[in-house]
Amino acid sequence: MAEECREGVSRHDELYESQSPQCQYCPGDSDDELTWISGQVDTGPQSSNGTKGPCRVIVHFDMDCFYAQVEMIRNPALRTVPLGVQQKYIIVTCNYVARELGVRKMMLVTDAMEKCPQLVLVSGEDLSPYREISYRVTGLLEMFFPLVERLGLDENFVDITELVESRLKQQMKLSDISINGHIYNQQPLDVTVQNHCRLAMGSHIAAEIRAAIHSQLGLTGCAGIASNKLLAKLVSGTFKPNQQTTLLPESTVPLLASLRGLHTLPGIGYRTACRLETLGLQSVEDLQRFPLANLEKELGATVARRVHSLSLGIDPSSVTPRGPPQSLSNEDSFRKVSTEAEVRQKVEELIIILLDRMYKDGRTPRTFRLTIRRFPRPVNKWFSRESRQCPVPGFLGQKICSGVDDAVGPLVKLAMKLFHRMVDTSLPFRLTLLSVCFTNLQSSCTKGSIQAFFVHESPGKQKDTPSQGVLLGSTGSSRRSAGGTPQLEPLDSSSECERATSAPPFGVDPSVFQELPADIQRELLSSIPGQSGSVTPSAPEPGVVTALRIPSFERLLQPSSVELHPGREWDADSCGEIGSPACDVPPNVDPQVFTELPLDLQKELLSEWKHETSPLKTQPPARRGRTLVSRGSKSATTSGSQTNNLLKYFKPS
Ligand code: DCP
Ligand code: MG
Ligand code: MG
Asked: Which of 370, 64, 364 is nearest to 236 (CA)?
């Protein structure tokens, strides 16, 4: 049944938006099931399970019946009726009114209707509203805590250690400390134990955060407070809905023992659980007792140790803000698509929705990928998807990020080209899934201008971040309101502002800016509202990280195989997959880099190249690709007449 559900509800894959190239699908559906737990190791207070030394305090938040809550916010009349959110033939979630009446998450619609004939169904096929609210929740948390990590659409980890410590310093009498909410296993709080006090203080902060999420966004949710991410996640769903539970270190063992099977341990997905089962391991206790040396033989040292630690409740991984997703995709599954026309139509539908998301995201995609799944599935279901990808031509990238509709046609053409690389349409075929995906997303500011070559982003700060001036508090600092209750404060960004250096427009690396000739500096300045002509100091936006997107040396050193097709217009047929010859690119130019340039710069480079002397064009292939313009190309680098040639900005100095 579980497998069937996963098949039927392909959009669940999108829940786990790709934050890294490897983490495209949900944890249990890939090799990457340890991803969320395998990040950096925390270097703060060292006790990962709270048994020795001061522990970290981690909160895991999980929204109640998330999609259903979003639907109830959109239509408050749904609050009082049993509500199911439907994708294909599955109820992916339902509100708690429906749960009281026996409806469960991931039930077949037919079963749910049988249980609860008055169940009201809404379609949950379009994930946009859920995604939007999801980023608002994360944005709200990020306003007050620097360490926030998203997990799926409705969960966040927050490391509140610093705030706990600062509040404890202000606490007059530790004996007054109590726990807000439930204590797992009803373990008595011992205020003489340092970590009990830390977690107890954490429970009050967690309650404040939940109250803030409710007052600002109208959402309820559960929280788990513990000494690491693993335990916080495990404990957060103990009491539902709209409640919170704190795990004191001594109750770790019973918490782990309560898990029903190995796959219920976060970080151990279906695949690893299967491998462990072949070793005769069924339960978390089995894994705890299994000799590590034997486990290492089966899984390799790294995975074995991690998995073994997890079974003991040890998780040193830090709460790692991941920033915006590294790819955006849209996919659909179906019983049968077996003609080229059907594929084209499906692909077009998927692309239209994806383009809208890409436009709202604001970044420019550099790579486009098409994924298919065939029927019957291959014997090894872990390799049931096939993909092909290609670079997104520069002009198309610009169309995409400027939101013009005519990006659909060229993208469909590109997708069909990729499709034909996988499927021989002269033979019968049957597909059960199509997915379109933009990856290699790059920030752009003033699109289509030189400004676009300077990254100007605030990682993790999404457009949906709620306005400042609302509530909450800071990490490491808290103040008391008139009533004496500690209050959270927004993070102070003044230190970021102090980074302002000299003349460049914000978002532009000052040292790079100063290297540019005056006319280009002017162009940059004039492309920014309120900054024209004169060179005046300006501060970066709070939290802004500046970086230069003019091709880096590393990228320039990547080999490229470029064929000459001067003067040819772009068309989908001439654009290959990554690594294959690109269309209309000057020789010695990394095609990927070239596609990142705005159209006018591409044209300018092309026309300059066409006017170059023959040595550049006849350069031997072995020397190509080291730089956008070969170091050895005298005509491009040393000619006095080339002083203001754009090409010179794309070579290492
Ligand atoms: N979801 C989905 N497919 C799945 C699992 C979940 O589409 N296989 C969606 C619907 C959920 C949302 O993800 O609303 C969050 O998943 P949760 O497991 O947190 O479930 P809910 O938030 O709906 O309910 P709960 O109150 O139990 O957390
Ligand atoms: Mg939830
Ligand atoms: Mg959840």
From this structure: 64
Tell me phi and psi for residue 219, to 5 degrees.
-110, 140
Rounded to 5°, angle at Cα 246 from 245 and 249: 145
Rounded to a whole number, what is the distance in angstroms from the first to the last CA of the chain?
61
CA 61 – ligand 2 centroid, Å: 8
Question: For ligand 1, what atom is nearest to the CA of residue 63?
Answer: 22
Asked if 634 contacts 589 with a C-beta cutoff of 8 angstroms, the reply is: no
Q: 204 is written with which tokens?
A: 């009050």
Which atom of ligand 1 approaches the CA of 241 most closely? 26
What would the pLDDT profile of 401-420 be if each residue is shown by its tens digit? Answer: 888 778 999 999 999 999 99
Tell me: pLDDT of 488 over 80: no
Q: Shortest CA distance to 7 belongs to which of 250, 431, 272, 334?
A: 334
Smallest CA separation from ligand 1 atom 4, residue: 12
**How far does residue 139's CA lie from ligand 1's centre (Å)?**
20
pLDDT of residue 587: 54
Give Cα separations from 77 to 105, 112, 468, 522, 536 (angstroms). 21, 21, 30, 56, 54
pLDDT per residue over 352-392, tens digit each?
999 999 998 899 999 999 999 999 877 665 568 899 999 99
Residue 241 and residue 243: Cα distance in Å, rounded? Answer: 6
Tens-place pLDDT, residues 164-179: 999 999 887 888 999 9
